[in-house]
Design a protein that fits this description.
It is built from two helices and eleven strands, in the order H-H-E-E-E-E-E-E-E-E-E-E-E. It is globular. It is of the alpha+beta class and 173 residues long. Strands 1, 2, 3, 4, 5, 8 and 9 form a seven-stranded antiparallel beta sheet that branches. The protein has a four-stranded antiparallel beta sheet with strand order 7-6-10-11, with no helix packed on it. It has one domain: Immunoglobulin-like (Sandwich). It comes from Saccharibacillus endophyticus. This is DUF5643 domain-containing protein.
Length: 173
Amino acid sequence: MRSKVMILILTAILTLTGVYVYADRSLLALQTGMTLPLQWDDPYGKQEEPIMLTTRPSQLSEPRVSLTPLYYLPESKKLQFGLSYSKHKYQADPSRNIPDRIFHVTIRGTDGQIFDKNTVIKTTGLFDEFQRRSIDIDLNDQDYLDIDVAWVSQDGNVLTPIESSSFKVVLQE
């Protein structure tokens, strides 16, 4: 009797794991790097070769967000990456003025210029969300980038950080 119960529990666990993996397969592919977090201006045109600027994913503590490696499209002049986070902790909430994009990403170049106009594409899973980000930036005269990721509230056009983390990316020649 005890072995039948154990087999039943194991079967249930394996079934639930299989359902989770199947339901979140596109999100898991983005989170693990099997699918690159790239956005194409012309998805049916000639694809340019992305340049990987960082080799490993980053984990930010405040807000608790995972970042994919950063990619640069040299012809389009776009920096692209992905943000992964718990959709139960971070979600759009009009009553708290949390905008639909949830996070505001700001990049400051070597010369002090700020790049914060970005395109967001969301992929939603059972427990997590993934945002593909694309920011217009020309890296030709940049030695490094300071990147700030902030969980924000928005009142009109004013963004107020709730939690924020920054990191520096040194660019190689």
